[in-house]
Amino acid sequence: MSHGTHPLYRIEIAETQQSFTAQPGESVLDAALRTGVSLAHECTFGGCGTCRVRVVEGSVSYEEFPMGLTEDEDAAGFALACQARPTADLVISTARGLEPAVPARRASAIVQAVTPLAADVLHLRMALPDDTPLAFAPGQYMKILLDDGSHRSFSMASAPRGNEVDFHVRRIAGGRFTAGQLPRLQPGDRLDVEVPLGNFALRKEDYRPLLMVATGTGIAPIKSMLESLMDDPDCPPVWLYWGMRSASDLYLDNEIRAWGDRLYDFQYVPVLSRADADWQGRRGYVHEAVAADLGDLSEHAIYLCGSPNMIHDAKQLFTGLGAQVPFLYADGFTFQHPTM
């Protein structure tokens, strides 16, 4: 059969009734973008999980099963739009529990300060130019738009507070923005941004104990979520596991230890993969520490943020311990630009 006689696949978004068509072999995301339909996405190669949707009707296949999805998620009907190719007409759901959804806007943000948090992490503080409070769901991110048409994405590291927002930016060796432009920024400098973006966000409506697992600067959106729960009488119990290589990398350690004063029931466990002989705490991989401590994860809402490898391994391990796929949220920090 010639390629031209293959059918087009009709794809409908359940929440909006928007529909578009995909050509044979075309991914759901590519088809949506080609036809002007907006679907949340970031890395576009199946690593970050931002484009996760649920297949309500129809079926999809993959040329290569994506790293940002597990077999359990696939079996539960979830798909990654950037890699999923329709094999039938589809109805997909993009509902992620973000209410109210705040539309993204572009603005010229004003740099307030750039200060070091660790040897390779900078604290960037910015303000939007008007007095309109920046509304976002804790866990979402901002795009910084660069002169060459590319962008860099960074999660908000603070809870919504007026028009100011914080970021934790890891410097990438040789990175044009993170090692070049960012350290030279001065208060008053402006950056073009788009905000807020992303599906990774706190779902207070889950009413479940919270398990938060981060590596590296993946702690930033977790910090935003937990700050939003401080002094909240409905705050659920929280377990926070933060994986780093060495003790000197734990740039928020003292601050995190004080969070327990303002959260209802807070347990914090730093885990080091390359600890020296002086380290008295937990060693190894952060997700394995969780499994050893908690065992049954069937009652938790679980938030994973950081390296795609950790997220992939944690999802597989945790679903084996009863974690419920609909209550397992992830944001993989993928450095898709070699010149970050």
TrEMBL record:
<dbReference type="InterPro" id="IPR039261">
    <property type="entry name" value="FNR_nucleotide-bd"/>
</dbReference>
<feature type="domain" description="FAD-binding FR-type">
    <location>
        <begin position="104"/>
        <end position="203"/>
    </location>
</feature>
<protein>
    <submittedName>
        <fullName>2Fe-2S iron-sulfur cluster binding domain-containing protein</fullName>
    </submittedName>
</protein>
<dbReference type="Pfam" id="PF00111">
    <property type="entry name" value="Fer2"/>
</dbReference>
<feature type="domain" description="2Fe-2S ferredoxin-type">
    <location>
        <begin position="9"/>
        <end position="98"/>
    </location>
</feature>
<dbReference type="InterPro" id="IPR006058">
    <property type="entry name" value="2Fe2S_fd_BS"/>
</dbReference>
<dbReference type="InterPro" id="IPR050415">
    <property type="entry name" value="MRET"/>
</dbReference>
<dbReference type="InterPro" id="IPR001041">
    <property type="entry name" value="2Fe-2S_ferredoxin-type"/>
</dbReference>
<dbReference type="InterPro" id="IPR012675">
    <property type="entry name" value="Beta-grasp_dom_sf"/>
</dbReference>
<dbReference type="InterPro" id="IPR017938">
    <property type="entry name" value="Riboflavin_synthase-like_b-brl"/>
</dbReference>
<dbReference type="InterPro" id="IPR008333">
    <property type="entry name" value="Cbr1-like_FAD-bd_dom"/>
</dbReference>
<comment type="similarity">
    <text>Belongs to the Fre/LuxG FAD/NAD(P) flavoprotein oxidoreductase family.</text>
</comment>
<dbReference type="InterPro" id="IPR036010">
    <property type="entry name" value="2Fe-2S_ferredoxin-like_sf"/>
</dbReference>
<dbReference type="InterPro" id="IPR001709">
    <property type="entry name" value="Flavoprot_Pyr_Nucl_cyt_Rdtase"/>
</dbReference>
<dbReference type="Pfam" id="PF00970">
    <property type="entry name" value="FAD_binding_6"/>
</dbReference>
<dbReference type="InterPro" id="IPR017927">
    <property type="entry name" value="FAD-bd_FR_type"/>
</dbReference>
<dbReference type="Pfam" id="PF00175">
    <property type="entry name" value="NAD_binding_1"/>
</dbReference>
<keyword id="KW-0455">Luminescence</keyword>
<keyword id="KW-0560">Oxidoreductase</keyword>
<dbReference type="InterPro" id="IPR001433">
    <property type="entry name" value="OxRdtase_FAD/NAD-bd"/>
</dbReference>
